[in-house]
From TrEMBL:
The lineage of its organism: Bacteria, Pseudomonadati, Bacteroidota, Saprospiria, Saprospirales. GO terms for molecular function: hydrolase activity. Keywords: Hydrolase, Signal. This is Family 10 glycosylhydrolase. InterPro entries: Divisome_Glycosyl_Hydrolase, GH, GHL10. Pfam families: GHL10. The keyword Signal applies. The keyword Signal applies. Residues 39-352 form the Glycosyl hydrolase-like domain.
Length: 517
């Protein structure tokens, strides 16, 4: 990547929610709009080579905090509601780990910790959640080093602790996916992350076996000879990746089933020339299935991922591999039980000489988002990358803010248990100098862990449709909350609704309270 579900709410739940509300008709309208306002709007935030974060390596906790906080604020202004942060770029980590050294791209020297015992990942999660934004940990499982230089690696880097696991290929170093010891180690990496951090997701990108270099076979023949059984090389490699993905999914769901686990494969699974029955009508020079040994359809059809996020890094009508052709293909081939999002090439806006008619304009990405919204199977978008939106000289950040003028809830996710309804008492709104004050509460006897994870505040009135006005911070654990509507017009009478939601973004109940003119 650096180189280059719609979940169905059952009718019973909707009817039950409406039944619990004090104003059934108005609340039903609000919930219909609330469902329509669900969409993943996210960015990848790459740490490798300091693509996005930090802008410059530093051990300063204050500088690292300010850098992330600034990007988070501007991304929120651009309409984003989730961030995929690269926490394991190349056998290293941007968090304290017993399994890897501190990343050189974080502090400037591999193995050097930030000052004052600062934990960047813990800070990122806390800061994002306070803004009602999800944070997903993006892991590159197999990459060990971006260069062949071994002298700059910390003593506890895999190149020094387990050189027998590492393979050199095309100027970089990778773990051998066929080794059982590698899979066991990567399982420990995932366990450490989900045990120590309040993450919303674990994410892998398109890097499994490396992108092929002409005339250079990946050096795993000895591993293949030892573990092949009766398989052909390509099937064996795909089997290694499939096993790792399935094991990762089991680990996550056993400990924290709400964590959203998924993968962003290369955008072309297979061309029709490679698979006339299932392939896409594309002419890509690389395919995920044949060259990277990543079989996304296998993961989806076997339920070992919660979502797929194919990287559709081409313009709408690009002849060899058009965005529309591929979005349609993924929508048709991803089972309904698996969420589908699409990855967009924000880095190409204003910078792609190979397809200038499409990318030398601010309209390509808005057109792709609009196309997604007409595909019921697609639940949102992720853009590569943070810097490409925030620092685009043509004003891409403002253009995305126009595309996302109001906040959106994240799509509802599949949960292992039925929804537990929660009644919300909403007090009569009060006009104050700060704005319209809205106060609500849930049963004070509820244990903290049973309190709704967050709330969505809706407003209607003055001839305007019901809109999502505010999303509270995640995981506050409070029984009584308040919100100031600073945009309320004193001459208008409004209706407000407060909808509680759980960690799976499922609505738990709702209530409506009218203001006084």
């Amino acid at each position: 990547m650096e180189d280059t579900l719609i979940s169905r709410r059952c009718l019973f739940t909707l009817l039950f929610i409406a039944f619990l509300c004090t104003c059934g008709r108005a609340q039903h309208t609000i919930l219909q709009n609330e469902t329509a306002d669900r969409e993943l709007r996210a960015v990848w935030m790459a740490t490798v080579l300091n693509i996005d974060y930090p802008q410059n390596p530093t051990p300063s906790a204050a500088t690292l905090q300010a850098d992330f906080k600034s990007q988070l604020y501007r991304l929120r202004q651009a309409g984003m509601n989730a961030i995929f942060v690269q926490v394991r770029p190349a056998g290293d980590a941007i968090y304290p780990s017993s399994l890897a050294p501190w990343s050189e791209w974080l502090t400037g020297v591999q193995g050097k910790a930030p000052v004052s015992d600062f934990d960047p990942l813990a800070y990122m999660i806390k800061t994002a959640h306070a803004q009602g934004i999800e944070l997903h940990a993006w892991v590159n499982p197999y990459r060990v080093a971006m260069t062949m230089d071994s002298l700059d690696k910390a003593p506890n880097h895999l190149l020094n602790t387990h050189p027998e696991w590492v393979r050199a290929y095309n100027g970089r170093r990778y773990l051998d996916p066929g080794l059982p010891e590698v899979r066991a180690h990567l399982g420990e990496v995932i366990d450490e992350l989900i045990s120590n951090y309040d993450l919303d997701g674990i994410h892998f990108d398109d890097y499994f076996y490396p992108y092929p270099a002409a005339g250079q076979p990946f050096p795993d023949r000895e591993t293949f000879a030892r573990y092949r059984r009766s398989q052909q090389l390509a099937d064996w490699r795909r089997g290694n990746v499939n096993t790792f993905i399935a094991e990762t999914h089991r680990r996550i769901k056993a400990k924290k089933p709400w964590i959203h686990f998924g993968i962003s494969p290369y955008g072309v699974w297979r061309n029709q020339s490679q698979d006339p029955v299932r392939g896409s009508a594309t002419r890509a020079s690389v395919s995920s299935y044949d060259d990277l040994y990543g079989d996304a359809l296998h993961w989806a059809n076997n339920g070992t991922v919660d979502y797929l996020l194919p990287q559709l890094y081409w313009s709408m009508n690009y002849a060899p591999a058009g965005y529309k052709v591929l979005a349609d293909w993924w929508a048709a081939n991803t089972p309904a039980s698996v969420a589908l999002y699409t990855g967009h090439a924000a880095y190409k806006v204003g910078t792609d000489p190979a397809d200038p008619d499409a990318w030398n304009t601010l309209e390509e990405l808005p057109n792709q988002v609009a196309y997604n919204r007409n595909l019921p199977a697609v639940s949102g978008s992720v853009f590569f990358s943070s810097k490409s939106i925030l620092l685009n000289p043509f004003g891409l950040a403002q253009r995305m803010a126009d595309v996302y003028p109001a906040p959106a809830l994240l799509p509802e996710r599949i949960a292992p248990s039925p929804v537990t309804m929660r009644k919300v008492k909403v007090y009569k709104p009060k006009r104050t100098e700060k704005g319209m004050l809205l106060v609500w509460e849930v049963d004070k006897k509820l244990p903290k862990e049973e309190v709704p994870y967050y709330y969505a505040v809706y407003r209607s009135g003055g001839g305007t449709p019901t809109t999502l006005l505010h999303i509270t911070p995640y995981g506050q654990g409070c029984h009584r909350l308040h919100y100031y509507d600073t945009t309320a017009d004193a001459a208008v009478s409004y209706d407000y609704a407060v909808v509680p939601l759980d960690r799976y973004h499922r609505a738990l109940s709702g209530n409506l309270q009218a203001s006084v003119r």
